[in-house]
From TrEMBL:
<keyword id="KW-0963">Cytoplasm</keyword>
<dbReference type="GO" id="GO:0009073">
    <property type="term" value="P:aromatic amino acid family biosynthetic process"/>
</dbReference>
<keyword id="KW-0547">Nucleotide-binding</keyword>
<feature type="binding site">
    <location>
        <position position="151"/>
    </location>
    <ligand>
        <name>NAD(+)</name>
    </ligand>
</feature>
<keyword id="KW-0028">Amino-acid biosynthesis</keyword>
<protein>
    <recommendedName>
        <fullName>3-dehydroquinate synthase</fullName>
        <ecNumber>4.2.3.4</ecNumber>
    </recommendedName>
</protein>
<dbReference type="InterPro" id="IPR016037">
    <property type="entry name" value="DHQ_synth_AroB"/>
</dbReference>
<comment type="similarity">
    <text>Belongs to the sugar phosphate cyclases superfamily. Dehydroquinate synthase family.</text>
</comment>
<feature type="domain" description="3-dehydroquinate synthase C-terminal">
    <location>
        <begin position="181"/>
        <end position="323"/>
    </location>
</feature>
<dbReference type="Pfam" id="PF24621">
    <property type="entry name" value="DHQS_C"/>
</dbReference>
<keyword id="KW-0170">Cobalt</keyword>
<dbReference type="GO" id="GO:0005737">
    <property type="term" value="C:cytoplasm"/>
</dbReference>
<dbReference type="InterPro" id="IPR056179">
    <property type="entry name" value="DHQS_C"/>
</dbReference>
<feature type="binding site">
    <location>
        <position position="246"/>
    </location>
    <ligand>
        <name>Zn(2+)</name>
    </ligand>
</feature>
<dbReference type="InterPro" id="IPR030960">
    <property type="entry name" value="DHQS/DOIS_N"/>
</dbReference>
<dbReference type="Pfam" id="PF01761">
    <property type="entry name" value="DHQ_synthase"/>
</dbReference>
<keyword id="KW-0479">Metal-binding</keyword>
Amino acid sequence: MNQVQIEAKSKTYGVYIDAGIRHQVGDLIQDVVTEPISSVLVITDSTVEPLYLQDVVASFQDVDIYTEVIKSGEASKSFSVYEQVLTKALESSLDRKSLIVALGGGVVGDLAGFVAATYMRGIRFVQVPTTLLAHDSSVGGKVAINHPLGKNMIGSFHQPEAVFYDTEALSSLPDKEWRSGFAEVIKHGFIQDENFLVWLQGINKVKEIPLDQLSTLLKRSISVKAKIVQEDEQESGVRAYLNFGHTLGHAIESELGYGAITHGEAVVIGMVFALRVSEEVNQVDLNVTQYEQWFNELGYQTKVPMSCDKKSLISKMKQDKKAEAKSIKLVLLNRVGDPILMKVPPTIIEKILVERMEVESVG
Ligand SMILES: NC(=O)c1ccc[n+]([C@@H]2O[C@H](COP(=O)([O-])OP(=O)(O)OC[C@H]3O[C@@H](n4cnc5c(N)ncnc54)[C@H](O)[C@@H]3O)[C@@H](O)[C@H]2O)c1
Ligand SMILES: O=C(O)C(=O)C[C@@H](O)[C@H](O)[C@H](O)COP(=O)(O)O
Ligand SMILES: [Zn+2]
C-alpha cells in the first residue's frame, strides 16, 4: 500500500492508496479514529452506486449504516441536493459521533464534505475517491457547493479523517474522466515539480498508464498538494498556487452551465490562458505552443469555447475567490515550478482572452 501523510494545521491524516481498498474501509477506519463511530452515512452518486457501494457498505460491521445516492454530475453540487442529503442525515438520526463516507468523485467528495462540515456544526467524514481527479479533491479539506453565479462559492475547510483511494475503481472510468483528472496532475507539475511535468509529457494516452506507474503518479501528485496544504491550510498564501488555471476555468464552467464541460477540461483552457498571460506580464517565453500541442494530442480543447461571452467571463473572473476589490488576480508562472499570484491589468486580460477565444471556421 502507498501512503501520503497530510499534515494540515487542523488535522493530520493519511491518504492510503491501494487496489481493492474499498473492501476494507470499515476496518481501516477503526485504526484511524480515536472515538467510536455511532452510525455511518455513505453518500455516493447514481453511476458509482451499482459499481462500488455494496463493497463499501459490506466493509462495515456492527454499526448502523445508511446510504444516500445523488444524481451523478456537477449539477448535484447544488443547494437542493445539499438539502436532500442533510434531510437524509436527520432522518437517519446521525449524531455527533456519526461518520459520513464520501464514495465517488469530486462532486460527491465536495458535497458530502460540506454536509459533514455543517451538519450539527461539523461531524467526521472520510473520502473514498473513485475518479482520477479526486486525488486532488479528496485531499486538503476544501468542501463546497456551487451557486449559479459562481463555482464553489458556498463552502468551508473541513479535513477528512482519512482518504482511502482504490486504484481498482479507476478501471471503470470513461476516457473523458481520465482526461479531466489528468489535468490536475499536470497542474501539480506546472506549479511545483518540473521533473514530474517532464515525466508526464512522456504519457500520450492517459488511460493506458500501467498500474505501477499510476500509483507513482498519484503519490507524486498528491505529495505536491500535501506540501502546499501543510504550509497554508486555509489559503492565505501559497495555497492559491493550487488554483493555477482555475480563474478562467471556473468562469467557463459557470458560463457554460455546470456539467457542460468537465472541471479538468476547463482547467486546461485556463492553464494555457494563464501561461500566455505569464508570458505577456513577465516578458518571458514559456513554450506555450509546445504545451498546447501536447494538450491537443492528449485530446484536450485548449481554446475558450465559442459559446462563451467575453464580458461575462471577465465579470465572473472578477468574482473569483482570489479577487480583491473587483480586480482579477491570476496564478502565473515565472517559469515551470515557480508560481506567483498577481493582480493582472485588465488590458492584458482582455488581450489574451481575445487571443484564446475559439473562432468559427469559415467554409
Ligand atoms: N475540493 C477540492 O480541492 C477540489 C479539487 C479539484 C476538483 N474539485 C471538484 O471536483 C469536482 C469534479 O470531480 P470529478 O471529476 O471526480 O467529477 P464527478 O464526481 O462528477 O465524477 C465524474 C463522473 O464520473 C463518474 N464516476 C465516478 N467514479 C467512477 C468510476 N470509478 N467509474 C465510472 N464512473 C465514475 C461520476 O458519476 C461522474 O459522472 C468539481 O466539482 C470540482 O470543482 C474539488
Ligand atoms: O485545493 C485547492 O486549494 C485547490 O485550489 C484545488 C483545485 O483543484 C480545486 O478545484 C478547488 O476546489 C478550487 O478551489 P476554489 O477555492 O477556487 O473554489
Ligand atoms: Zn481543480
